[in-house]
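Much of what follows relies on a compact textual record of a protein's fold. Think of the row as the fold of the chain written in a discrete alphabet. An example makes this concrete, so a full record is given next.


***
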Amino acid sequence: MSPAPAQRGREELGKHEKYRNSTGREIRELCRAGLWEDSTAGMARNFYQANLVILPKEYAFEFMCFCHRNPKPCPLIDVTEPGNPEFARAAPGSDVRTDLPAYYVYREGELVEERTDIKNIWRDDHVGFITGCTFSADAVLEESDVEFGRIETASGRFGAYVTSISCEPAGRLHGHMVLNARPVAAHSVARVVEITSRYPLAHGGPVHVGFPEQIGVDLAKPDWGQDRGTFGNYVPVFWGCGVTPAVVARESRLPEMITHKVAHMFVTDLRI
């Protein structure tokens, strides 16, 4: 008989726990060697994890503007030079073509392929961007007195939702904001807002608290992640999510965008 979902979740989280105190470089080297193709939740806890976006140079300036205009879902950390796969500031010696566990490839706004490296599709006109991830604040929150609902999933994530909130457009780029939700005990809401607001590179403070219907969200129907159904006595608290560019790719019908697979992040050398 197969293990129950909760048991499988605990087993998977235990596998990640082995790398809790690893460095960003060590996680990237695992990925580069083809030894890690799973979520990076819970790994390298002292280092910022990041979302990835790769675009043709033609769209690079517009995406940079998009990030500056929408810092909650897309807090910009670093940008590569065109054709150079290294994030020289955030991760010297890195290679964006190999240093993530898994990638998504979008063409004409549609997800067409999942890959474990992008070496043979990387081009001289590609520009890479990394933006902050909520995983980066997890270690701080775990050491705080914030009470969350329990996580039993392999990825360590709650659901992410395409909301009715429109991002500020930039040139040809437009789309709706994606937020991820966590159940927070009512007595901890003010505390979680205070803590996460200290970390703007990890999406900062929440975008919305409670009343999911006000932002077009049905908690029982996440676009990514686990179907949580109801949050019970917990308050749904929503943070910006780095999956937003995937929605921008779809709604803007971009000819090409390469991203990380959801929850399979680029781990930087920047300490939290």
